[in-house]
Amino acid sequence: MERHVDVLMVGAGISGIGAAYHLQKHCPGRSYVILEGRPRLGGTWDLFQYPGIRSDSDMYTLGYSFRPWTHPKAIADGPAILAYLRDTAEAYGIDRKIEYGRRVERAAWSSEHARWTVDVLEVETDTRTRYTCNFLFVCAGYYDYESGHTPEIPGLERFAGRVVHPQHWTKDVDYDGKRVVVIGSGATAVTLVPELAKRAAHVTMLQRSPTYVVSIPARDVVADWLREHLPARPPMRSRGGRTCCSAWRSTTTAAASPSTRRAG
Q1: What pLDDT, on a 0 to 100 scale, did the predictor assign at position 263?
Q2: Is residue 38 a part of any domain in this protein?
Q3: Which end of the chain has fewer beta carbons closer than 10 Å to its terminal beta carbon, N or C?
Q4: Whole-number Å distance between alpha carbons of 39 and 90
């Protein structure tokens, strides 16, 4: 079975949803499909379930310019971000363009025909579909969803307790009243340690290099004031006798195509 679309996108996370919006807006005549390997949209924000999951940058920067973040917390928790992505996809009809449980196995470019041929596995039925497209837009992120990075630790097999990778955290992980060691001092550890400390008997962060952390409020008082006193969008203004509205612009991720052809 073979299907053709003008633009084939891979990944229904924060990048894929944003790319789909801009394609719909600027190239409304182009057909497109988003292939998502998992059963739900959201990417990282749906995958990670560890305690305290949140953004490590403010949502006014991370969020979409076409759908500004209005939640009171600038540094938002994972569930709030996931709800924001779901609401955005639904509001613009992007959710109807997503095909779930589709994993890209191979992509080949033909200069002669000026198109991509993409082989896709349908996970549930173990069947394969071939897509062709003029433009392949990869928004798959940089995480290996199947297996997060796990360094080799000599003697780990002798540890009698449970070893948990944050990427594969499940609801049955019980750390109440236990002594916990968190290896690493990056954004995940900084997020995880305070939450674990609320219920664990003792938590130790094992780090190779010190990390400098500054505590700031989750809410941005300047943003709160601006939101209260200024309109959500720039006011209408007159230019050359005609009324127009300033447009918000945002950057998008680069498209994966060796061709100089454009989608629109």
Answers
A1: 39
A2: yes
A3: N
A4: 16
Lookup: tokens for 6: 């003008």
Please report, for the domain that includes residue 66, its CATH number. Answer: 3.50.50.60
Residue 111, C-beta contacts closer than 8 angstroms, at least 6 positions apart: 258, 259
Query: Is 183 contained in some domain?
Result: no
Q: What is the pLDDT of residue 236?
A: 57
* Mean pLDDT per 10-residue segment, the chain (264 residues): 94 96 96 96 93 88 91 90 97 97 96 96 94 96 80 90 91 94 90 94 91 79 81 61 38 40 40
pLDDT given at position 142: 78
Residue 234: its pLDDT value, please? 63
Residue 143 within any structural domain of the chain: no
Place of tokens 């008082």: 221
Does residue 174 sit within a domain? no
Compute the CA torsion angle 78, 84, 85, 91 (nearest 10 deg).
170
